[in-house]
Amino acid sequence: MKPIRVGICGLGTVGGGTFNVLTRNAEVIRRRLGREIQIEMIAARRPNPDCDTGAIRITSDIFEVARDPDVDLVVELIGGYDVARELVMTAIEHGKHVVTANKALIAVHGNDIFEAASAKGVSVAYEAGVAGGIPVIKALREGLAANQINTVAGIINGTGNFILTEMRDKGRDFADVLSEAQALGYAEADPTFDVEGIDAAHKLTILASIAFGMPLQFEKAYTEGISKVSPEDVKYAEELGYRIKHLGIARRREQGVELRVHPTLVPESRLIANVDGVMNAVMVDADAVGPTMYYGAGAGAEPTASAVVADIIDVARSFDHPGCAVAGLGYANAELESLSILPIEQIESAYYLRLDASDQPGVMTTITGVLSEEGINIEAIVQKEVHAGEQVAHIIMLTHTVQESQINRAITAIEGLDVVTGSVTRIRMDHLD
Ligand code: HSE
Question: Which of 86, 108, 375, 431 has the fewest beta carbons under 10 Å from its own?
Answer without folding.
Answer: 375
